[in-house]
Design goal:
Elements: H1 4-15, E1 19-27, E2 30-37, H2 38-54, E3 62-67, H3 72-83, E4 86-91, H4 96-106, E5 110-113, H5 115-124, E6 133-136, E7 145-146, H6 147-150, E8 167-172, E9 182-186, H7 187-196, E10 208-211, H8 218-230, E11 233-236, H9 243-250, H10 259-274
Helix pairs in contact: 1-8, 2-3, 4-5, 7-8
Length: 279
């Protein structure tokens, strides 16, 4: 059975020069989407995987992600797949009790944080029996390894035997009925989810697909691997709270999401209508 690495390699082989991901950046012309091709995405993945391996991470270990969205979590997922690491995305808005529980129980050896994630981590760090090493996302200042340093390696990650039965993600439940429970997703699980919806959205070869669901949600995971496996272009929202603003800049042809995000979009649309109309 295929792994997530197989899906990405197949897309790179077929669509090397096509835009794989578009991320919002501020340029001379203002805020706009900047493309990263499939070939560039694989190169960036390998640079990050090489840097993580140089930092001592290896197959069987776990890497946590505590951010407010962005491109770095996507790249971390792909690099973790390449090395046989398990990625553990978490919600930075979780209570300190839940974050201590999730970080401790998952046993992450490294934690990727942005500014908001770092603030939360600093609150829970004293309660952690074994604090993980910290990797700061781009432009995040604080104590830990910088993104630039980890990405500065030779870009040649070690060869790792990754199978469909290997762990790829641990997703935590919301904790509405007690402390969250970790749910393991293997490479085979996520590949099966991708194949199950393969032609449900579109048979098109070229399509702009908008990612709105958060990384710590199962739908958010599908939002990443499904369009990349199809050879489409994945547009990223800066964060789940900026979906309405960012989807206007994207003008996507399709997206998968969760009811909460649609409720936010619906509510924001009505706020603008009540304020005098959508511009």
């Amino acid at each position: 059975m295929q792994t997530l690495n197989d899906l990405l390699e197949q897309s790179v082989e077929r669509h090397a020069s096509k835009p794989a991901v578009r991320r919002l950046e501020r340029t001379e012309d203002g805020l706009g989407y900047v493309p990263i091709t499939y070939a560039q995405l694989r190169s960036l993945r390998d640079r990050l995987a090489s840097g993580l391996a140089a930092a001592g991470l290896h197959k069987g270990q776990r890497i946590g992600i505590l951010t407010d969205g962005g491109f770095e979590p996507i790249l971390t997922f792909l690099a973790a797949d390449r090395l046989g690491l398990t990625a553990v995305p978490m919600c930075h808005k979780s209570s300190t009790e839940i974050l201590v529980h999730n970080i401790s129980r998952s046993g992450v050896d490294c934690l990727v944080v942005d500014e908001k994630g770092l603030q939360q981590y600093e609150l829970v760090r004293p309660a952690l029996p074994q604090p993980p090493q910290i990797l700061l996302t781009e432009a995040t200042e604080g104590e830990g390894q910088t993104w630039e340093a980890v990405m500065s390696g030779d870009g040649v990650p070690p060869e790792t035997d990754v199978t469909a039965a290997d762990e790829s993600k641990i997703l935590y439940t919301s904790g509405s009925s007690g402390l969250p429970k970790g749910v393991v997703q293997t490479h085979g699980n996520i590949v099966a989810n991708v194949l199950a919806v393969w032609d449900r959205i579109s048979h098109a070869e070229d399509l702009y697909f908008f990612k709105s669901a958060p990384d710590y949600h199962s739908m958010g995971i599908l939002n990443i691997y499904y369009p990349l496996a199809k050879g489409w272009t994945l547009d990223l929202a800066r964060s789940p709270d900026r979906v309405l603003a960012d989807i206007r800049l994207s003008q996507p042809q399709a997206f998968l999401t969760v009811p909460l995000v649609l409720d936010k979009v619906f509510g924001n649309v009505h706020k603008e209508i009540d304020a005098g109309g959508i511009k």
